[in-house]
Amino acid sequence: MNTLKDKTLLALILVFTSVLTVFGNADSTSKKKSFDASSFILHHVLDAHDWHILGEGENSIHLPLPIILLDRGLQVFSSNKFSVAHSEHGHDYAVTEDGLYAIFHEKIYRTIDGQLTFDEEGHPTEAHATPLDFSITRNVASMFLTTALLLWLFIGAARAYQKTGINSAPKGKQSFLEPLVLFVRDEIAIPNIGEKKYMKYMPYLLTVFFFIWINNLLGLVPFFPGGSNLTGNIAFTICLSVFTLYMTIYSANKNYWSHIFMPPVPKALYFIMIPIEIVGIFTKPFALMIRLFANMTAGHIVVLSFICIIFIKESAAWAGLSIPMALFISILELLVAALQAFIFTLLSALFIGSAIEEHHH
To answer: Which run of H or E residues covers position 340?
Structure first.
């Protein structure tokens, strides 16, 4: 218990010291340029073509990631080639060493003579082509990391069961995974899908649960290799929701479709109810997508907003208020990380279960 208290106290000291250090570095430049909280928060919440490791400003350390563009052929190079800084009409952007491409707000454009031109609203003009971007961004790299971690956990546990038998006492990775697997089976799959058919969908439900949960936890880690807001990316949640939609439609039986196209209402109301039922097929996964995206993004924004109070007020004294509040929200986000994984998996099982449910007289 004393060890846990010591570790907690040390973590608090490290967080407080880190913020004061960053504030001390920023204090010298605050007179030159006011702190832009919205840009700071968006920079940390949105995706990026490199992975920030340490420091701020010109002295920061970044891990360059591959840039893969489809533009007059396949163009592959490292993101550290965006090294030539430019500024035009108050807009900062970076250009590749050869001057062919520029990156502005993490979107890549083909340049005109190595320069970007902006319209009155501050957007790059239509003269700049936007190549198809298949780059390995920070979110994609984080997804690969999570995939490798899950493979390491599950393959290791599976091999241990092969050696000792499925009825043996769990050890190591098995002790961590077995209670969670049983929880997904007994509390999510069986109650919503049924004992006869749940095994068919367990691989998908386990994958969704662990994939979302681990990515949520990595997003809360404020240092490399964490800090990526993958589950707060709408493209990520769309893909998971589409998978659930596909599983639901693919598994649906005739009773499900008869309820859609022959709802249990008077036939005079069919012209109203049938469109509503069809729309309902797509609103369910849409709700899954928005729920996960909004909850995880909101948590990151709230934590960063509390940190930004120090820089907005330009006083380290505000750390006494903002740091405890940010720490409280971060601890709360640990619960939200598991809760959102549980809710997404539960609703996916519920939608699938409703599609394969047999008709009861």
So the answer is: helix 319-356
